[in-house]
Amino acid sequence: MTLNNFIRIFITIIFANYINSKINFFITDYYLNFTLGFLVFSYWVFTLEEHLYALPSFCIGLSIDLLSGSPFGLNALLFSISSYIIHSYRYSFKIFSFLQVTIFFAFLSMFYLGFIHIFMNTANFSYLLIFLSFFLNGIAWIFIYILMNRFKKIFYK
Predict the structure, then answer these.
(1) Fewer Cβ in 10 A, N or C end of the chain?
(2) How crowded is residue 76: how many other Cβ atoms within 10 Å of its Cβ?
(3) Are 5 and 157 in contact (CB under 8 A)?
């Protein structure tokens, strides 16, 4: 992976995380939480031929920790673990349907959101928020996959 491609990937993830923070400000009152930055990261790990392994995932997670003000290393740890899980099932995804892949990434984003809320909101942990966000993130994965495929064809070389 060239440095130019890594910078493009990094900018898309940071931009998605910024949009994520703006959207979550409004929808948290309705027991929904959106993990757009994590889903874009998962898309890149899932589709790249030059694999996005643990070290770049860890660095991207650390930068998101610094920019978002979350506990230092939390996103880095979760991004590294999710990168490992996605790479473990990389060849199994070829026999899955798109619906099964969507459910997998919805579950992965649900666990990501659950760990974030366990470490940051232990007093206000809500199972309803996690459950409803599963459906929101599953629907969002479909749109992210379609839009990021177009982005990848145009800008990623």
Answers:
(1) C
(2) 21
(3) yes
Q: To which residue do tokens 């991004």 refer?
A: 79
* CB neighbours of residue 92 within 10 Å: 11
Phi, psi of 16 (to 5 degrees): -65, -35
Residue 33 in contact with residue 27, Cβ under 8 Å? yes
How far apart are the C-alpha atoms of 131 and 148, rounded to whole Å?
A: 25
Q: The tokens of 124 are what?
A: 């206000």
Structure-token pair, residue 34: 């959106």
CB 64 within 8 A of CB 14: yes
Closest CA to 39 of 138, 154, 153: 138
Q: What are the extents of the domains in the chain? A: 3-155
The token duo for 98 is 């798109």
Separation of CA 5 from chain center: 18
Whether pTM > 0.85 for this model: the answer is yes
Average model confidence (pLDDT) across the chain: 89
Q: In 10 A of CB 114, how many CB atoms? A: 16
Q: How far is CA 123 from CA 26, 34, 117, in A?
A: 21, 20, 9
Distance between CA atoms of residues 5 and 20, nearest Å: 22
